[in-house]
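Students often ask why inverse folding is considered easier than folding. One informal answer: many sequences map to the same fold, so there is more than one right answer. In these notes we will look at a single instance of the problem. The structure comes first.
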C-alpha cells in the first residue's frame, strides 16, 4: 500500500490523498490519521478517516494495481492539516499497522 498526502485542496474545504494498492490480499478498508489545526496552531480536529472506496453510496472492491484518489472534508476552522496512513484492514480480518 502506498499513501500520498496531497494537502489541502485549492478551495480550502478538503484534504486530498492517493492510495495505491500493491497487494493481492483483499482489502476491506484503509484508516488514515488526520489532524487539523487552526491559524494559531491549535488542534481543531484529530480523528481517524475510514476510506472504503464508496462510489455512489455503494462500496466497491479495492483492487490490486489501482490508484484511488479521494478527499475528506476539513473542519471549517482548520487552515492546516496532516494526514498519514494508519492501518489497512483486510477482508479476512487481519490488519497491517503503520509504525
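Output (designed amino acids):
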Amino acid at each position: 500500500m502506498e499513501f500520498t498526502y496531497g494537502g489541502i485542496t485549492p478551495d480550502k474545504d478538503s484534504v486530498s490523498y492517493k492510495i495505491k494498492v500493491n497487494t493481492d490480499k483483499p482489502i476491506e478498508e484503509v484508516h488514515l490519521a488526520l489532524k487539523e489545526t487552526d491559524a494559531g496552531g491549535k488542534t481543531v480536529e484529530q480523528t481517524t478517516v475510514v476510506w472504503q472506496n464508496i462510489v455512489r453510496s455503494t462500496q466497491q472492491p479495492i483492487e490490486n494495481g489501482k490508484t484511488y484518489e479521494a478527499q475528506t472534508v476539513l473542519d471549517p476552522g482548520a487552515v492546516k492539516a496532516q494526514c498519514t496512513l494508519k492501518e489497512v484492514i483486510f477482508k479476512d480480518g487481519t490488519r497491517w499497522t503503520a509504525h
